[in-house]
Amino acid sequence: MTMSKMLREAWRAVSSGARRSAGHVAGTPERDAALSPIALPVDGHKFSDFLALSQFLTEKSDLDPAVATRAFLALTEADEAFEGHANRLLAAIQDGRLADMDGFDSFMAAHPALRSTAMRIISAWYLGYTGTPAPLDTEDDARFVAYESALMFRPTADATAVPSYTRGRTDYWRHPPASLATD
Amino acid sequence: MMPIQYDADVIVVGSGAVGSNLAYELAKQGKSVLILEAGVWVPRWKIVENFRTSPRKVNRNDPYPNAPWAPNSYTPGYIENTGEFDFRPGMLRLVGGTTWHWGGATWRFLPNDMKLRTLYGVGRDWPLSYDELEPYYTRAEYNLGVSGSDTQDQSGQRRGAAYPPRSAPYPVHNEEETYYFQRLKERIGAEGYEFLHEPHVRTNRPYDGRPACCGNNNCMPVCPIGAMYSGEVHAKHAQAQGARVIPDATVFRIEKGDGGKIAAVHYRTSLGNDARLTARYFVMACNGLETPKLLLMSDVANSSDQVGRNLMDHTGIGLQFLADEPLWTGRGPIQQGGVFNWRDGAFRSEHAAIKHAINNAVPNQEVTRILLERGVVGKKLDEQIRHMSARWVEFSTTFEMLPHAHNRVQPSTIRTDALGIPTLKVHYETDDYIARGAARAREDFARFVAIMGGTVIEDHTGWQNRDHLMGTVLMGDDPRDSVVNHECRSWDHSNLFMATTGVIPASGVVNPTLAAIALAIRSADIIAKEI
């Protein structure tokens, strides 16, 4: 088996973390003792696979296991075949046919059946939900995954607030962010 | 003979911004007031937590209560549309009403807005003048803590002085412009477009117990700190003045008495218990859809056959594009103003007035959704989220709709809620007046994009809801073709008033809540004199 370096590292960190209690992943901040360990409603090994796969697909080594649990459950609830698809995706990556996400498009051109599974996982981490939320309706298939830690906010964290979590003061908005010249 | 005993001097049906301000004014003058609210009373922190843990941040009603016995407007089937347009405003049912989530815009209508028929030969006139309403506008602005500019011509016609006339300065000065707004104004404004600051209810200094806005960028669906005004403020103030707020009380019948007066209202609780309450005066303040529904269910106030008709929204269209420079939309409040060249002018005999409002919501979710749809992943995804979010520009354009008798709301004949009360049936068609306005607006869109060196994301949205419900219990001079007079008093029942944006007979292009509150304060003064 020739796992990519990143996936191999993720795999090691996650597997040991999941065995300990699934409360910790290398690279995540220390969590309050009262909040950790989280109780995993899913089998530890499956969960390790999912978290490792998520870390590879998002290129993030510090994904929160609690968020991973919600993402895994939401995706599985929405599609009971999800786990099987995710396993095939993981196996394909582990077989060395995808070294890192720079090669994603060409890899997916060769494995079109795996693309939607990969995008569903990436989407859950970035958008913080699965399914399609309805703007003017109370019924839809959307499920909550994360808000403040949704990955879509990271690239702009220095410039804009996660709505409802401002760090500014009245009238801070008069000036652009300090990074303007290089944006 | 024993004197007649009443349960209250005044019963107000609905605890939203309009009804609660009216109730407060009456309670302050020593009248006994009951406020009946279909929904419940929910503390802000719960709504904020509901928002944060919701998977549908795009859905403004989602963090709010939605019970089978008090369904909100997004419940499937609650609004049954029979027209070509899916009319679906985000109306709430809880103490404080729908101003829990609003942009908070509190423009005044212009004197000319209120003389549309006389000046431009279309639509209807208001039955009172701007000068008659002005003192009540001022009181409404002080109740709400409106932040605004005391120097600009808000008609967009560049008179070079503050307009429309005001008897007092704004209670809160206008906040600083966002960098995003400054840059759009510098570049697009240089080409002849008139940018105006929008008066609004996000106080920027402590006001009436509310803290200053610090830019949480979440006015919709919920301000986490209560800097933005909602009707709950005056539901509480009314209570402090001795009014009683009764939640979980859905009024389903208005009972007629002797001499053309209203005798009582009947409400039902979530447990199915009914109660009958009497009062000297009754005020219907349950928004522009539920108010006419209740009147029609009760066969009340409808000798004109106008109840529920003339439904208007500021039906709109939108524009999204990426500018050629980083502007960093999303810093500060969710909106600050827009472009107002088409707010008034002789063109109104030909096409609708136009408001180009500029949105300033943090765009990450929309940007990321688009990028994921395009299959962008990895480092490029993070880079593109930052690049596009920094350049995102969004306009939300609205048009002045005219009243048409066929655009109407009625009680449903096929569906009821859990209390057995009919839900809503709506028929709504757009017209050529706003279609011609939209054609003009799209010319502006093309220029905005060109001036900003932009790349269009979306410029053909189709018609959109703006949730400004007007016309359904409209006021007028003639009892044969209007529901209430200039006092907002029913032509048919001398002790029945309407306190809702539904009384507005000519819609202009500005958000109607402040006008309805001003009219309601005026109604409260009239009622107080008669009791």
Please, could you describe this protein's structure?
- The complex is a heterodimer of chains A (183) and B (531).
- Chain A is mainly α and 183 residues long.
- Chain A has one domain (5-182).
- Chain A contains six helices and two strands.
- Chain A has helices spanning 5-20, 44-58, 65-78, 82-97, 104-110, 112-127, and strands spanning 129-130, 143-144.
- A two-stranded antiparallel ribbon of chain A has the order 1-2.
- The radius of gyration of chain A is 18 Å and the shape is globular.
- Mean pLDDT of chain A is 82; it is low at 15-40.
- Chain B has 531 residues and is of the alpha/beta class.
- Chain B has a single domain, classed as FAD/NAD(P)-binding domain (3-Layer(bba) Sandwich), CATH 3.50.50.60.
- Chain B contains eleven helices and 18 strands.
- Chain B has helices at residues 17-28, 44-52, 116-120, 130-144, 179-189, 232-240, 287-298, 364-373, 378-391, 432-451, 513-530; strands at residues 8-13, 33-36, 79-81, 147-148, 172-173, 195-197, 244-246, 250-256, 262-268, 274-284, 316-322, 335-339, 354-359, 392-399, 408-416, 422-427, 455-458, 496-498.
- In chain B, β9 and β10 form a beta hairpin.
- In chain B, α1 packs parallel to α11 (513-530) and α4 (130-144) packs across α11 (513-530).
- The relative contact order of chain B is 0.19.
- The chains are: A mainly alpha (183), B alpha/beta (531).
- Chains A and B meet through α6, β1 and β2 of A and α2, α8 and α9 of B.
Largest sheet of chain A: 2 strands, antiparallel
Structural class determined from secondary elements of chain B:
alpha/beta
Neighbour order of strands in the largest sheet of chain A? 1-2
How far is it from the N-terminal to the C-terminal residue of chain A, by CA? 42 Å
Q: What pattern of helices and strands is seen along the backbone of chain A?
A: HHHHHHEE
Major interchain interface with per-chain residue totals: A-B, 57 and 64 residues
Rg of chain B computed from alpha carbons, rounded to a whole number of angstroms: 23 Å
Spell out the CATH superfamily of chain B. FAD/NAD(P)-binding domain
Order of helices and strands of chain B: EHEHEHHEEHEHEEEEHEEEHHEEEHEEH
Name the helicity range of chain B.
25-40%
Mean pLDDT of chain B: 97
How much is the radius of gyration of chain A in Å?
Answer: 18 Å
Number of helices of chain A: 6
Q: What's the overall geometry of chain A?
A: globular
